[in-house]
Amino acid sequence: MHIPVIDISPLYNETNDTNKYTVAQAIDTACQNSGFFYVTGHPITAERMLTIRKLSEQFFALPAAEKQRISIKLSNNHRGYGETAAEQLDPSKPGDWKESFDMGLNLPAGHELIGPKRPLYGPNQYPESIEGFQQILEQHYWDMLALGKKILSALAIALNINEDFFDSKFTHPLSVLRFLHYPPRTAHKDETGAEVQPVAAGAHTDYGCITILWQDDLGGLQVQDVNGNWVDAPPITDSFVINIGNMMARWSNDRYKSTPHRVYSPSSEERYSIPFFVEPDFDTDVSCLPNCCKEGEAPKYEPISAGDWMIYCFNSTYAYRTEASTAET
Ligand SMILES: O=C(O)CCC(=O)C(=O)O
Ligand SMILES: [Fe+2]
């Protein structure tokens, strides 16, 4: 499997359409083949990522009680701290050996979009004791969203639809910025006595539109090829790894591939990564994109709203969400 490295700087050069088109073609091809690619030439600076990584380290170093005060279990809209093993990406394996912090669009309580019809909207939960945390993260959130929209504009160009087709679908995005911390893992023996390396994050596909991943220098991200083999997606300086999620696969009538991946790290060192999940507004109509269905054929999937799709996906991964909903009924 080939995971291409694509320099997207031409997408920011408004005057040269030929170069833009070449980049759009390269992205479109990668999304049809592996569903994974790297981007370089983006506007998020190394200095910014260092600042964000430091905030992540500071956050996970807080006392457990302080992190639990903003537990995701206390949030109606899936924001805050998730302890190790809270998320089980591969249902056949134990919970993932990672802790997480999720933030998104910070809507104040009482905002008109918040309500039982749209359960993913609402306020964030922030730690109190880290200076600048909220302000820096919220700035970073919008900068990452702008990058996501730029990548989507390339898909629009490749699909021969209006370049800003996706733009209007991100006024109140469900996008999420996530800190992940994988504490040291040690190898253990299975029942036959064979040494087993722990899987840090189980095999899964992402739920949403596209994911933009920053990973530290440790490595461990692996992508599954069509034969079921795991291929390393090692860190590349100043790049992000981009992958297609299930919503975009559905939206594009399976033109684009949502490919299984995992974090498999034999290391006893700790690992940090920072995914940004690019998801549109809750009410976005996810029905077959223009030019993604052959003439005379019906699209493969029924229309669904982006929000309903995300809720359906979350409920199958987080035990606490289904426990809570069972308790309510
Ligand atoms: O930590 C990583 O490198 C990947 C995380 C991931 O795949 C996810 O959160 O969906
Ligand atoms: Fe993922």
From TrEMBL:
Residues 172-280 form the Fe2OG dioxygenase domain. The keyword Oxidoreductase applies. The keyword Transmembrane helix does not apply. Pfam families: 2OG-FeII_Oxy (PF03171), DIOX_N (PF14226). SUPFAM superfamilies: Clavaminate synthase-like. It catalyses: 2-oxoglutarate + O2 + 2 H(+) = ethene + 3 CO2 + H2O; L-arginine + 2-oxoglutarate + O2 = guanidine + L-glutamate 5-semialdehyde + succinate + CO2. GO terms for biological process: ethylene biosynthetic process. Keywords: Dioxygenase, Ethylene biosynthesis, Iron, Metal-binding, Oxidoreductase. Its EC number is 1.13.12.19, 1.14.20.7. Pathway: Alkene biosynthesis; ethylene biosynthesis via 2-oxoglutarate. InterPro entries: DIOX_N (IPR026992), IPNS-like_FE2OG_OXY (IPR044861), IPNS-like_sf (IPR027443), Iron_ascorbate_oxido_reductase (IPR050231), Oxoglu/Fe-dep_dioxygenase_dom (IPR005123). Belongs to the iron/ascorbate-dependent oxidoreductase family. This is 2-oxoglutarate-dependent ethylene/succinate-forming enzyme. It comes from Reinekea marinisedimentorum.
